[in-house]
């Protein structure tokens, strides 16, 4: 019989500890694993505890202070080992601060050895209510707040915090965040996700009965088709779903990307450029910090450019125009492929070499 696994993520130490403590109390006979990364000393610490107290407290020197090393060297082996012991009715794992759970959820769902022993029940995002808006729409870098997972981690706080909320099945706020904060979280979270103001309101039976779907989480976090999103009604948050079959013009994207990516809002989605027609590009940003990159191939899918933007207050009127200005115009067209058969397009620092994308 597979052991239910609950994965807890977050960017706030106190909110994560509160959620983990509540889960340990509410889930009878559960074991809790807490991992932390020290990027300065390149050390991973692991604490394993249950109702009897602390069972293990170990530190491991990492070859590189990064999430991939932590997963490979300790997180996944520990989860498999605990599940193999059949001592507990559930495993709750608190990942290192700012670590996204996709690598864990993909490994558990795709690795036959892990899938035989573990069942993904819930992906939880623990959020501090006191500064929820400032966190989700922050333009600060993780390293500025000591939240980075390694020396090369240049991600933004808002970008990561939003991604954690979007991917989860359950958002646990440590208290009521107020109308604006709650509406922003609701706008970012999947429509099927549950939002709890206070971990003491969680239903242990529902937690264990859940089944996390990595595919559903990825489809919401990274929309690459034209599936419409639910309309926000009666909300203090706004959402713009900007979509076109046309690609971004590489020169205008390079020169004016901030017209769409800058500002106190969350943006996520996909795009393509005519100089790399087969490459699927990823767009993710918040608060003015933006990451773009190549994430795969379009394959048999029809390429499209789709950016979903979310924020608070009046809906900005300039963003649809900014989106349109970045797109190829019908007059520029794609018919003459020789126009776009270039050796360089200026996007190499973010998307890699053009020839590698061919």
From TrEMBL:
PANTHER family linked to this entry: COBW DOMAIN-CONTAINING PROTEIN DDB_G0274527, ZINC-REGULATED GTPASE METALLOPROTEIN ACTIVATOR 1
Protein name per UniProt: GTP-binding protein
Lineage summary: Bacteria, Bacillati, Actinomycetota, Actinomycetes, Propionibacteriales
Matching SMART domains: CobW_C (SM00833)
Domain CobW C-terminal stretches: 237-327
Pfam families registered for this protein in UniProt: CobW_C (PF07683)
Database matches in Gene3D superfamilies: P-loop containing nucleotide triphosphate hydrolases (3.40.50.300)
